[in-house]
Specification:
Blueprint lengths: L2 H7 L7 E3 L1 E3 L2 E3 L6 E6 L4 E7 L3 H18 L4 H17 L1 H12 L3 H18 L2 H4 L3 E7 L2 E9 L2 E5 L7 H12 L3 E5 L6 H13 L6 E3 L4 H9 L3 E7 L2 H12 L4 E5 L4 E5 L5 H13 L9 E7 L2 H13 L20 H16 L3 E4 L18 E4 L6 H4 L6 E7 L2 H10 L2 E2 L1 E5 L3 H10 L4 E4 L15 E2 L2 E2 L6 H7 L1 E9 L18
Parallel strand pairs: 1-5, 8-9, 8-11, 9-10, 11-12, 13-14, 13-19, 14-17, 16-17, 19-20
Antiparallel strand pairs: 2-3, 4-5, 6-7, 7-23, 12-22, 15-16, 18-21
Helix pairs in contact: 1-8, 2-9, 3-5, 3-8, 4-5, 4-8, 5-7, 11-12
Length: about 525
């Protein structure tokens, strides 16, 4: 059944559709009899089923991609760019279709889903510049009569393993650049919201991408392990939790693959007394509870410095208490449900542990009910004050609408809190002091920093990635580092000695003499 069929039946109570693989330019049912549920988080209904691929399915996708690579790597960079431009136009004309799929299966509000698609589209636009991005270097006369030059070539078949929280944007961090560089791609999306990947595959085909260059294998750990172990997969890109990122890095690297594995986060917002507290509270609230906190760049911990503490907590309380929670399709909703009932239960349990450990529960989002959606996986915003670094509610990546507040007396103490955390994905500082901001950005051991910007996701022409337990591997995704990850360099040193040629050309009729 096509993706459009999946969209039309979602949440209507009709027979759940089946989301299949996409291999070699066509929907493929695969060999597995296993199926996974695809929920509508706003209603709690099982709206679709996704096939869960086997090693045989993975092998078919990889071999199909390997066969396509032989031709794709020979396609000129200008022709690749034309296909990318066509794909960009098709995605741009289907933003709402992709957003509706994301909302139906993930639960995030439509405006947030549209924003996700548009941010992914920025990487496609970056990849459209591949003729410029793949330009090599040339040095004339490095020695007498000798020139030197370098260029980059694709790796072969590369794979992407992506999470549920951004089913459009995160895959687009990977495959536009990989394909533009001349590789072929196998995507293993999250089984929780698989339909967007199928529509993306159809759009690639409409853009003129040769069959087999982009493939989708649906599945769970069985499919992941098959990709990590497959000898014909040259590189793996992963985004997800830190334990799984470590697993992916270790198991892919030991088979000789190039790996970039992005893990979890505990992103801090440090708020100084000189900051505009209303501005800070507005932006922290949105960064903490947007997408129900299911973002690897969400603000989940605030470090209030000195006199900022009590006033900031009160402002955060006022705003958290008024966040409009509802189904993602409701245009008035600011926050939707979490993705599964297990995710909801995990959030509730984390809040209960925090209060048991001594944190002060300022806003309680447990037990939230949304009219007409009693079966939905809803949990409201939670705000806890007086949290310490020793508490589990601070140490764990909860991945839900839970914001904790810690206190520090000085900027140095606040930076020490950030640096002691094992994660190093993103952080932000709110201040009106340039000196404070410069000190902060130089001293924190974090990969992405915002100054009065709560979610410092870099633009597509920079690269995205954290430090410490937030990244395993030495390359960040997209931007210049993405091009470097999906290619390898060659350096050539060339000499063309002078050769005398004697011409024996003549205008007379040739004879045997």
């Amino acid at each position: 059944m096509s993706t459009s069929d999946s969209t039309s039946t979602a949440g209507t109570g009709s027979t759940p559709s089946i989301v299949e693989h996409w291999i070699g330019g066509a929907p493929t049912p695969g060999t597995s009899t296993r199926r996974g549920p695809v929920w509508n988080p706003a209603t709690g209904e099982r709206q679709a089923e996704v096939v869960l691929g086997t090693p045989t399915d993975v092998d078919l996708a990889v071999q199909t991609a390997a066969k396509a690579f032989a031709g794709w790597q020979e396609v000129s960079v200008s022709k690749r760019a034309k296909i990318l431009f066509a794909f960009r136009e098709l995605v741009n004309s289907h933003v709402d279709d992709l957003a509706r799929l994301v909302t139906a299966e993930h639960g995030k509000v439509l405006s947030d889903a549209r924003g996700e698609v548009l941010r992914g589209l920025e990487v496609v636009e970056f990849a459209c510049g591949i003729p410029q991005l793949l330009k090599g270097e040339f040095s004339e006369q490095v020695s007498s009569g000798v020139d030197a030059y370098s260029f980059r070539q694709p790796l072969g078949v590369v794979a992407g393993i992506t999470p549920f929280n951004f089913p459009v944007m995160v895959p687009m961090w990977m495959f536009p650049i990989a394909i533009a560089c001349g590789n072929t791609f196998v995507l293993k999306p999250s089984e929780r919201d698989p339909s967007a990947s199928r529509l993306i595959a159809e759009l690639w085909q409409q853009a003129g991408l040769p069959d087999g260059v982009f493939n989708v294998v649906q599945g769970d750990k069985e499919a992941v392990d098959a990709l990590l172990e497959h000898p014909d997969v040259a590189a793996v890109s992963f985004v997800g939790s830190t334990p799984i990122a470590k697993y992916v890095h270790q198991n892919a690297a030991k088979t000789g693959k190039r790996v970039q594995a992005l893990g979890g986060a505990k992103n801090h917002a440090v708020v100084l007394p000189d900051a505009d507290l209303d501005f800070a509270a507005d932006h922290i609230t949105a960064a903490a509870y947007g997408s129900a906190g299911q973002r690897c760049m969400a603000i989940s911990a605030v470090v209030a410095v000195g006199a900022a503490g009590d006033a900031l907590v009160e402002k955060l309380r006022e705003r958290a208490a008024t966040v409009k929670v509802g189904p993602g399709a409701d245009d008035t909703a600011e926050m939707g449900p979490v993705v599964t009932p297990q995710a909801r239960d995990r959030v509730v349990a984390a809040v209960e542990r925090g209060t048991a450990e001594g944190a002060k529960l300022v806003v309680d989002g447990r037990g939230l009910r949304v009219d007409g959606h009693d079966g939905g996986f809803f949990v409201g915003p939670n705000l806890l004050d007086q949290v310490t670094p020793a508490m589990s509610v601070y140490q764990e990546e909860i991945f839900g609408p839970v914001l904790v507040v810690l206190r520090a007396e000085t900027l140095a103490e606040a930076i020490a809190v950030v640096n002691a955390n094992p994660y190093g994905n993103g952080t932000a500082v709110f201040t009106n002091s340039g000196e404070v901001a410069r000190t902060f950005q130089r001293q924190v051991t974090v990969g992405m920093i915002g100054i009065n910007v709560p979610i410092p996701v870099p633009m597509a022409f920079y690269s995205f990635g954290g430090w410490k337990d937030s990244l395993f591997g030495d390359r960040h995704v997209h931007g210049p580092e993405g091009v470097g990850f999906y290619t390898r360099g060659k350096a050539v040193t060339a000499r063309w000695p002078h050769v005398e040629h004697v011409s024996d050309a003549a205008f007379h009729f040739p004879t045997s003499g």
